Amino acid sequence: MASADSARPGFQLPLLLLAGFRTLIDDLHAELARQGHPELRPLHGFVLQAVGVDGITATELGQRLGISKQAAGKTVDRLVAVGYLDRVDDPRDARRRVITMTPLGVDGLRRSAEIFDRLRERWAESLGPERVDALEDDLRTMAAANWFRLDVPGWFGG
To answer: In its keyword annotation, does this UniProt entry include DNA-binding (predicted)?
Structure first.
């Protein structure tokens, strides 16, 4: 068991993982801004993923993100104002409004995927493709079975 004064204290591992995540996300958003999406923020990616191609209600969005309906609504308001989302009447229930992605929202998600591929290539150029593959394999081994979860915003918020 490593002590606190060890050359590799345990608290550094989550900080380094977070720093790697932050580096990728910051690089993503800098490139998204250059490609015409300066309004998108890290939280917005989770929201657009949660909305998906079929749309979602504000209540469902809050549940998927692990945040309140009010917090989800506020974020949706912002994304509607800048053209990434829209609110439409639910064709199955006129009392409900469904949040859907606009073409701009779809474009932002598509560009994000392409940029992430290029960022991964950049990491492979710096570290070597085998090391990046091994890092991903090791993280898959250590991560929970349901590692891709959209409730990170709510989890961070406490």
So the answer is: yes
DSSP state of 100: E
Instruction: Spell out the per-residue pLDDT of the chain, length 158, in tens.
Output: 555 567 899 999 999 999 999 999 999 999 999 999 999 999 899 899 999 988 999 889 988 888 888 888 999 999 999 999 999 988 888 788 999 999 999 999 999 999 999 999 999 999 999 999 999 999 999 987 766 666 666 666 54
What domains can you pick out in the chain, each with its CATH number? Answer: 22-108 (1.10.10.10)
Question: What is the pTM (predicted TM-score) of this model?
Answer: 0.85
Tokens encoding 89: 């009447």
Q: What are phi and psi of 47, to 5 degrees?
A: -65, -50
The encoded tokens of residue 40 equal 């998108």
Contact 99, 87 (CB under 8 A): yes
Helices 129-142 and 103-127: crossing angle in degrees, nearest 10, is: 110
How far apart (Å, rounded) are the C-alpha atoms in residues 32 and 157? 25
